[in-house]
Amino acid sequence: MTAPTASTAPAPPADPAALAVRDLRVTFDGFTAVDGVDLDVAPGDLRFLIGPNGAGKTTLVDAVTGLAPATGSVRFAGRELLGRPVHRIARLGIGRTFQTATVFEQLTVLQNLDIAAGAGRSVTTLLRRRRHLPEAVAAALETTALTAHRDRLAGTLAHGRKQWLEIGMLLVQDVRLLLLDEPVAGMSHPEREATGELLHRIAADRTVVVIEHDMDFLRSFARSVTVLHAGRVLSEGTVEQVRADPRVQEVYLGEPALTAPAGGEA
Ligand SMILES: Nc1ncnc2c1ncn2[C@@H]1O[C@H](COP(=O)(O)OP(=O)(O)OP(=O)(O)O)[C@@H](O)[C@H]1O
After folding, report:
1. Is the shortest distance between the CB of 234 and ligand 1 below 6 Å?
2. What domains are defined for the chain?
3. Prediction pTM value
4. Which residue's CA lies nearest to atom 6 of ligand 1?
5. Interface pTM, i.e. ipTM
6. Per-residue pLDDT averaged across 232-251, rounded?
7. From the CB of 226, is ligand 1 less than 6 Å away?
8. Could you identify the atom of ligand 1 that is nearest to the CA of residue 60?
């Protein structure tokens, strides 16, 4: 067998953690909520998904995570997700958060992370304090700046930290694609800044999609933006590109935080 030459060498493998959505459609009783969406997100990107109420953002994420029946194709790391049940999609390294953090309020931060890590230990073992933390749990505590709060009950955490704990629970499961639904809703300004920095750290080697309405947050932290409108992709590009798009300006009339020229905004 001869060694492959440059021209006959096999193409490099597809990006191992890229999300590729093609012609995605979700219909509810004849109403098309997602209408032929194509979307590509690569690791290292930090994609913000925006659009007016009812644009189809949550439904798109529901379709990717198996919660809404859809047609078309959703591939992650080369694998087709459509048609798989929710738990199998999760096992492929896909995780999401919802607008309200879903943590176990009566358990400590550490116990929440332990449970998420599913270390296969009994409840009694989980509730016992251990001397050595699993590496993934220690890393998630560090990444989410929760190390000093590890023994606090999750229910007593400030709103922002609860959201970070939920993100930490995805990190310990080694989720490679994170879909976050309005992660900074209800957060203070410092919490939003810290969340933006956290998302940048996470997106360095994972694929992150953020549904967001907070335009100031988007302008500070988005690496790229997809604008949905009436179930379709209206515009896509950098923050500056979508802001300059007249179609986006029309849809976002009255949203100066998105469309005002740089330096002139509130
Ligand atoms: N289970 C459902 N049954 C019927 N219609 C639905 C269902 N889920 C969503 N829809 C409709 O699909 C459209 C898209 O909803 P979706 O929640 O995806 O929008 P969104 O962009 O996330 O909006 P928001 O920013 O308000 O959360 C809306 O018109 C909504 O009413």
Report:
1. no
2. 14-93+208-256 (3.40.50.300)
3. 0.86
4. 28
5. 0.96
6. 93
7. no
8. 18
